[in-house]
Amino acid sequence: MLWAARVLARTFGTVWELLSRLRRRPAAPDPAEELRLRLADARARDIETAGAVVEPVPEQVQRDQEPSEPAASDVEDLRRDVHARGRALSEKMRGASGKD
Asked: Where do the domains of the chain lie?
């Protein structure tokens, strides 16, 4: 009689295991799809707010706008300054490391 109870318990356990494996678990949301939805929402908000932006008057743009390219002498001065700072920093780092 005890063996019948054990067989019945094992059968019940096996059936329970099979049913729990067959039961569909709710699928986790796809992270890529979630990001696509967030991006679409963000783009929709950007489009809505982009229409609310006031366009500047062309005369104001011309007055506020600086020349797009600096003069050649300014570029050369800037280049020399950058190189001088780089050399100074390089020499400072060599001195700090103690290796010569």
From this structure: 72-100
**Rounded Cα distance, 16 and 4, in Å:** 18
Q: pLDDT digits over 10-32, tens only?
A: 999 999 998 888 877 767 778 88
Residue whose token pair is 């010569």:
100
pTM tops 0.85: no
Distance between CA atoms of 34 and 37, rounded to whole angstroms? 5
The amino acid at residue 70 is: P
Predicted confidence (pLDDT) per residue in 48-66, tens digit:
776 655 565 566 555 555 5
Radius of gyration of the chain (CA): 36
